[in-house]
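Figure 2 data, in text form.
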Amino acid sequence: MRTTRFLALAATGVLATTGVAACGGAEKEGAAGDGGPITVKATDTACEVGRTDLPAGQTSFKVTNSGAKVTEFYVYAAGDRVMGEVENIAPGLSRELRVELPAGTYETACKPGMIGKGIRGALKVSGTAATVAPDAALAEATASYQRYVNSQTAALLTKTEEFVVAVKAGDVAKAKALYPVARTYWERIEPVAESFGDLDPKIDGREEVIEEGMEFTGFHRIEKDLWTSGDISKDGPIADQLLVDVKAIVAKANAEKLTPLQLANGAKALLDEVASGKITGEEERYSHTDLWDFNANLEGSKAAIASLRPALEQRSPELVAQLDKEFANVETALGKHRDGDGWKLHTALSKADLKELSDSINALAEPISKVAAVVAR
């Protein structure tokens, strides 16, 4: 059974989530000031933002996906702190994002396929921004984390529903394709789920749960059938129960109130999860899609730190610089193993590859272990 301690994949989005990767900074069609939202034209290879020089305050973006892949849109502050995001924008659809931005420099990013760093561009916001007091910065960290959790649980529910439909239809190929995608959103919020009794092992328990007197159900039971026998004809009831349990987790996670110290401890716990389960290949022992989970855990840890960033910058700017460096090193090491819109199988990695990933995670864990003490000052 997997025990991922609570972790915050928090981000600081204000009214929604967004990302903008733009071409140029001049005003274009749909720029702010004409009475409508700023247009964002997203494709599989481009992210054109109607305006990239904005006044401080509330801004609205309308993101239209003209590509063939599902996309996401983000607005990032320094350190990839999420100021706003909108996810799961299917081809041909548009979604709107409202976000509150104080004066400063930001990055926008569209993410075709909902992976990677995205197609990024500069965003400048001008005006007067009040200084945030340390205690207020911590309060905002937990509030922004909750907004992020809400966005992740919405995507988790959507992708789990799609996965369940594929399983019940006996569509093995589609179910295999959806499996690591749905689990990406689970891995980002799974640490929160451990607080809710037996829901975590029911959803994400590995085969060892049988030794603890529990039934082997959830994602990993279906994973085993998909990749061993390929026979999912009897998995309908398991899929139905998975969806029931995921809906319960979504409701509980959206209602859970966490503290800044929990965010700090959770960031470290997710890295421990990578070291204990993803590096070893134990988590996804049948599908070998461990690097999807690795990346999701890393994103969750980084988002937790990002939500705390304003307070950390006030209290320990040198620690922030070290965290930025080590996160970048892990992302570089992991990025060598991309495979199209996804990741290589764990079985395709050499011992040297795994050692490099392990070493980079250990190096990042050291400064992250200091965050809780800084937050507790």
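Caption note: The two ends are 35 Å apart (CA to CA).
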